[in-house]
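All the exercises in this workshop are built on plain-text protein records. A record pairs a protein's sequence with a compact description of its fold. Backbone structure tokens are a discrete shorthand for how the chain folds in space. Once this layout is familiar, the rest of the handout is easier to follow. As an example, a complete record with its sequence and its structure tokens follows.
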Amino acid sequence: MLIKATKYRYKRIFYFLFILITATLTNIVNAHTVKVSNDIGATLHIEPKDQARAGEAAPVWFALTQKGGRYVPLRDCNCHLAIYAQPHTPGEPALLEPPLKPMNVERYEGIPGAEITFPKPGVYELELTGKPSTGENWQPFELKFEVIVAQGMEKTAHTSGQSSKGLDPFKPVLIGAIIISSIGIIVFLGNHRNK
């Protein structure tokens, strides 16, 4: 009877730690943002690691896909990108309107992309609109993506001569997961010794 109770406790703790670590690391896996309008879907990706930084040029691309999975290259889309600082009022002019250029990324060729330098940290809205530029058979679309821009790396030199490095956003998550896992193991071992 004692052996069954101990095995049950091991399983319960193992499942708890597994769920905890999985839930903690889920944000790392969900990097890309997907939106759908009419019969066009788009995946937004910002380099590096979907983390835009103020004052630093960031390559941004949109993987446009029709219903059925056929991707839409920039040559088939009369697309326009407008960027607004949040909050903004309707009718207000866009903060930035970077020109779109065809990009070859991953398995996509010629998809809409741009190089964007966000002026300061904060929340921005990227609004991508488009309609067929050729005889394509899909409806015009309007897609809005919310992007949070972090503080950029400092441009000034430090007295120590070392350059400033931005904090990798995944390190705090990883450190938190390690701390929580360690606490769980310590509690487990402490309970196991008392028996």
